[in-house]
UniProtKB/TrEMBL annotation:
Species this protein is from: Bradyrhizobium lablabi
Top-level taxon of origin: Bacteria
GO MF annotation terms: ATP binding; kinase activity
Biological role stated in the UniProt entry: Catalyzes the ATP-dependent phosphorylation of 3-oxo-tetronate to 3-oxo-tetronate 4-phosphate.
Domain spans labelled Four-carbon acid sugar kinase nucleotide binding: 260-417
Keywords for this protein: ATP-binding, Carbohydrate metabolism, Kinase, Nucleotide-binding, Transferase
Protein name stated in the entry: 3-oxo-tetronate kinase
InterPro entries membership: 4-carb_acid_sugar_kinase_N, 4-carb_acid_sugar_kinase_N_sf, NBD_C, NBD_C_sf, OtnK
Recorded catalytic activity of this chain's protein: 3-dehydro-L-erythronate + ATP = 3-dehydro-4-O-phospho-L-erythronate + ADP + H(+); 3-dehydro-D-erythronate + ATP = 3-dehydro-4-O-phospho-D-erythronate + ADP + H(+)
Domain Four-carbon acid sugar kinase N-terminal: 5-229
Enzyme class: transferase
Family note: Belongs to the four-carbon acid sugar kinase family.
EC number, UniProt record: 2.7.1.217
Length: 425
């Protein structure tokens, strides 16, 4: 297998978002959980997205894991590697976007790296280096209240400069609108001044196409699914990849009971849970009880076993921003987050033991904890439920075939849980 594109995603939902985008553009794509073991039988593909859970861990560990993934991808012939970050640039001044980018840039030998989280399809645009979420700057969006990495600065040149060893510059929309050669000229100017990373504006998909074409001159780029779309279109346009027909993945029904788990506390997920209450039984976990011990996860499993044969259920830990901050001030941010993620993994494990083979999970960290616990090595990408969220079909699992949907906290329409279950038969 010789890869046309290698990708390293810093969380699992982000990885399936990217795998979805690449698949929709005609790249045969597989999502792996971590660096694949040598005995994992992978189909012939154009792109591999290695999912890491490295967004909110110590920067040094994130760097080591990303480098290991890069080595594996380059070893399979990937000439270009995309480091997939969140479209809302989720990170802190300690990392992990800057440190991982610095390390991968050193490995790739590129003088300068293009960086953009723009993903217009989901309302993420970048102008003059400022990230907008819908119509508001990042620091006024719900991301200001994120439980793990609240975002308080929308100027990504500043945000990335605080995390990176290299100087960071800007390639603005005016330059981009003059075409690929103008962007190449701007990058040459910046790297001539010793600047090693450029935030690049993008508002429309056509901007991403220009960015994709320029990025392919380099060995590394950093961004969200938007730059993935640009790279995929550039690979197809240049004839390096022959676009595959849609629907290449089997849609054979998996059947059996279905369950949803929500650990995301985003406004979008809170609204989706409220809507799910109208159509399925919903259990709201007590976060204090989760931190107190394993009894809360056991209570959830007992509750589920009384209902799961009658239809899908939803179990949620999600709370409002005020409740999240109150819990974090009592127990610490990381300890609270970790305990809840592990309880979600316990619940997922119990559900699968009792026969569940169709699972919808909301939240990147939550999905990471669940998929790790279920020891699922990888996925093929099926139908799209909502922008950035495909149906995933497990490959190489010892539990038989499973269908999953891993939803980024902010993604999906108001009826997301029922929308997902309709496509996961
Ligand atoms: N009630 C709660 N109080 C405090 N923390 C919570 C609560 N419920 C869940 N959490 C934690 O909040 C974090 C949510 O992160 P997660 O990545 O799962 O969702 P998200 O950030 O909305 O999604 P994404 O990363 O895809 O945007 C997890 O660490 C989770 O355990
Ligand atoms: O890019 C995005 O917004 C998502 O894929 C994601 O990574 C959210 O966690």
């Amino acid at each position: 297998m010789k890869l046309s594109l290698g990708c390293i995603a810093d969380d699992y939902t982000g990885a399936s978002d990217l795998a979805n985008t690449l698949t929709r553009q005609g790249l045969r794509t597989v999502q792996t959980i971590g660096v694949p073991s040598d005995d994992l039988a992978l189909p012939e593909v154009d792109a591999v997205v290695v999912s890491l859970k490295s967004r909110s861990i110590e920067a040094e560990v994130a760097v080591d894991r990303s480098r290991a993934a890069e080595k594996w991808l380059r070893g399979r012939g990937a000439g270009h590697v995309l480091f997939k970050i969140c479209s809302t640039f989720d990170s802190t001044d300690a990392g992990n976007i800057g440190p991982v980018m610095d390390a991968l840039r050193t490995d790739s030998g590129d003088a300068i790296v293009l960086v953009t989280p723009a993903f217009p399809e989901t309302g993420r645009t970048v102008y003059q280096g400022n990230l907008f979420v819908g119509s508001v700057p990042l620091n006024e969006s719900p991301l200001k209240d994120h439980p793990l990495n609240p975002m308080h600065d929308s100027n990504l040149v500043r945000v990335l400069a605080r995390q990176s060893r290299t100087k960071v510059g800007l390639a603005d929309l005016a330059t981009l609108s003059r075409g690929a050669e103008a962007v190449r000229g701007r990058l040459a100017d910046l790297s001539g001044k010793g600047i090693g990373a450029a935030i690049i504006d993008a508002v429309f998909d056509r901007d991403l196409e220009t960015i994709g074409a320029v990025a392919l001159d380099h060995r590394l780029s950093v961004g969200a699914s938007g730059i993935g779309l640009g790279l995929a279109r550039a690979l197809v346009a240049s004839g390096k990849v022959k676009a595959a027909a849609a629907g290449a993945v089997s849609d054979a029904p998996v059947g059996g009971p279905a369950a949803c788990l929500a650990g995301s506390c985003s406004q979008a997920t809170l609204a989706q849970i409220a809507n799910a209450e109208k159509v399925m039984p919903v259990l709201h976990l007590d976060p204090e009880q989760i931190i107190a011990g394993p009894a809360e996860a056991r209570r959830a499993l007992a509750w589920a076993s009384d209902r799961i044969t009658d239809g899908p259920i939803l179990i949620a830990s999600s709370s409002t921003p005020d409740q999240v901050s109150a819990l974090q001030s009592r127990h610490g941010r990381d300890a609270a987050g970790h305990a809840i993620e592990q309880a979600m993994a316990d619940i997922a494990e119990g559900l699968v033991r009792s026969g569940v083979r169709r699972l919808v999970v909301a939240g990147g960290e939550t999905s990471g904890a669940v998929v790790d616990r279920l020891r699922l090595p990888g996925f093929l990408v099926g139908e799209e439920i909502a922008a950035g969220v495909p149906v995933l079909r497990s490959v190489g699992s010892d539990k038989g075939e499973m269908l999953l949907a891993l939803k980024s906290g902010n993604f999906g329409g108001p009826e997301f849980f029922s929308d997902a279950l309709k496509l996961m038969r």
